[in-house]
Amino acid sequence: MTLQERADVLFEDQKTSWPLLGANWEKLDGAQLKQFDFDGFTIRVQCNPKRIVSSAAKVDKVSIENRSCFLCRENRPPEEKNVWFGDDYEILCNPFPIFREHFTIAKADHTPQVIEPEFGRFLELSRALPDLALFYNASNCGASAPDHMHFQAGSRGFMPIEEEISSLKGQYGQVLLEHSAITVTAVADGLRRFYIVESDSKERLEKLGMGAFRFLRELQRGEEPMINMLSWYREGWQVLLFPRDKHRPWQYFEEGKRNILLSPASVDMGGALITPLEKDFQKINREDIEDIFSQVTFSAEHFDRMNEYIKRKLEMYDQ
What we know:
Blueprint: H1 3-17, H2 19-26, E1 32-38, E2 41-47, H3 52-55, H4 61-65, E3 82-85, E4 89-93, E5 102-107, H5 119-128, E6 132-137, E7 150-155, H6 161-172, E8 173-178, E9 182-188, E10 193-199, H7 202-220, E11 227-233, E12 237-243, H8 250-253, H9 266-269, E13 272-275, H10 278-283, H11 286-296, H12 300-312, H13 314-317
Parallel strand pairs: 2-13
Antiparallel strand pairs: 1-2, 3-4, 4-5, 5-7, 6-7, 6-11, 8-9, 9-10, 10-12, 11-12
Helix pairs in contact: 1-2, 5-7, 7-12
């Protein structure tokens, strides 16, 4: 069987053999949804109470050091099974699913969440799991296990942005780099500032990715670039890179009526906001969404600087 087929079989089995996953998966049918239409794209909001574990995760250094890593084999529940990708990554079913199929793909060794040495494996996984959208949350942008390298993957078609790529490129896109092997389009849609990278060459993608990650580390003055990333593969890769300027909005830390427990990560940047608390689902409005995104997305100044950097890369691809 292909890796995709083995992952599908694993998820079907775990829905019945792992009660926690089965119960939470059943609740997806009753999840409350609402939608906000912006100019040329959509933002959906899902109320998913079980995601409180991820949304409210304490990811500061002290909290991480004082808890056992739930992605390490010795700390997993006995019901949790896996499928191997090579000998370095384990595909696991996420017991708190957002998607009809939702996987966490954890590195076998307990190593920190750092994208640069693992970007090639990210691309390979995306190609090997064509029915899924692969995503990466940086340690400072939504990863609930920043101490253990992992990706996630979910069923295609859940995030609105998947069906909006062409229209977003046409309405809001600026082509920065166009080459026979790779195209990079910058998109500023009024809510998000991000990049659509398209190529059928893993080598070209890795080369551009390494440069982009290095540039972002220097720009943001951090050890790990603040990013979310989505990818899928159909006769080539589409990689969506969302640089970030902030982890969580001020609403996350407020108390009382001003509080909205929303910690944006890759799925949220893809147009599907996950609210674990019903009070937030009921009250969140278009203005809240605009304000939250304005805080966490890449600033216009940084976007312009990175655009210029990518344009200069054209010379590298013509060599």
